[in-house]
Amino acid sequence: MLKYQLGDADARFAEIIWSNEPISSGDLVKLCEQEMSWKKSTVYTVLRKLCQRGIFENNDSIVTSKISREKFMQLQSIEFVADTFGGSLPGFLTAFMGGKKLDKEQAEKIKQLIEQYQED
Q1: Within-domain flag for 109
Q2: CA distance 64 to 18
Q3: Which domain holds residue 23?
């Protein structure tokens, strides 16, 4: 399994943590019971799995993220492009665009991003 790819249930669980951290593991169990109808054992199993993957940590029954939501999304995107398009950003963009046209504002924003991140 890819390190930064999450299934739907794991992603919902991660969102609960990111939205409420730092959170006690007991409070996390209560939230997951309310929002996802999960039992305590399920919460701890998924939490342990995501801690082993380096996304969260549970120290003294306080759950926090090791990676922010924004950083996780960045890493997930990089991993997706690498796995699906052999790391080719142009390949990804070609597939993503699928023949669609950009309006002037979108095209200008993309040009600015390219200039911002372009190596000299």
Answers
A1: no
A2: 8
A3: 8-69
Residue 78: which residues within 8 A CB-CB, separation 6 or more? 4
Decide: 84 and 93 in contact? Cβ < 8 Å. Answer: no
Give the type of residue at 111.
K
Distance (Å, rounded) from C-alpha 80 to C-alpha 72?
12
Q: Which pair of structure tokens corresponds to residue 78?
A: 């990089």
Return per-residue pLDDT of the chain as tens, 120 residues. Answer: 568 889 999 999 999 999 999 999 999 999 999 999 999 999 999 999 999 999 999 999 999 999 999 999 999 999 999 999 999 989 998 898 888 888 999 989 999 999 998 887
- Our count of domains for the chain comes to 1
